[in-house]
Write a structure and sequence with these properties.
By secondary structure, the protein is an alpha/beta fold. It has one domain: HUPs (Rossmann fold, 3-Layer(aba) Sandwich), CATH 3.40.50.620. About 40% of the residues lie in helices and about 20% in strands. Strands 3-2-1-4-5 form a 5-stranded parallel β-sheet, sandwiched between helices. Strand 2, helix 2 and strand 3 form a beta-alpha-beta unit. The longest helix has 17 residues. The radius of gyration is 16 Å and the shape is globular.
């Protein structure tokens, strides 16, 4: 019997963007089970709580699973990425690349991760050209400054993002 191919797509997903969803939609074709690891990463000062981000990822990815594509499992983690990958049984880590600058950082991460566990491969998927400029950090900034975030994410996420940004602006 063939071994179940498990992929791990880690990130903070604060907020989930069309770029993330593009990578997820393509990753589910490569594995039998895709674990989306939502990281705590307090250094990035998230706009949404961990629980909110998990709920939004589950809401937006539910239609992508099954029907010949991978099962999707959304989990949180606050450990070393390779430890989490081992815990969920991942054979590969899926990463999205938008630009050459992403590659520089990811190249260093791959080298370190291979030293930690040479059995887990890192697979890079190039972002669809329509989504290459989208970065969660910039989408948050646009929202916090009252700009239109709808071109960068789904209507569901955009609505939540606008609401949160409005709440933040009222506090200041």
């Amino acid at each position: 019997m063939a071994k179940t191919r498990v992929g791990l797509y880690p990130g903070t997903f604060d907020p989930l963007t069309h770029g993330h969803l593009d990578i997820i939609a393509r990753a589910v074709k490569l594995v039998d089970r895709l674990v989306i690891g939502v990281s705590t990463n307090p250094s990035k000062s998230p706009l949404f709580t961990l629980e909110e981000r998990v709920e939004m990822v589950r809401h937006e990815t539910a239609p992508m699973a099954g029907d010949g594509r991978a099962a999707i499992d959304v989990q949180t983690f606050d450990s070393l990425l390779m430890h989490f990958a081992e815990k969920v049984g991942a054979q590969m880590i899926v990463r999205g690349l938008r630009a050459v600058s992403d590659f520089e950082y990811e190249f260093q991460m791959v080298a370190m991760n291979q030293r930690l566990n040479p059995d887990i491969e890192t697979v890079f998927l190039m972002a669809d050209p329509r989504h290459q400029a989208i970065a969660s950090r910039l989408v948050k900034e646009i929202g916090l400054l009252g700009g239109n975030v709808s071109p960068f994410t789904t209507p569901y996420i955009a609505e939540r993002l606008v609401k949160r940004c409005n709440e933040k602006r009222k506090k200041h």
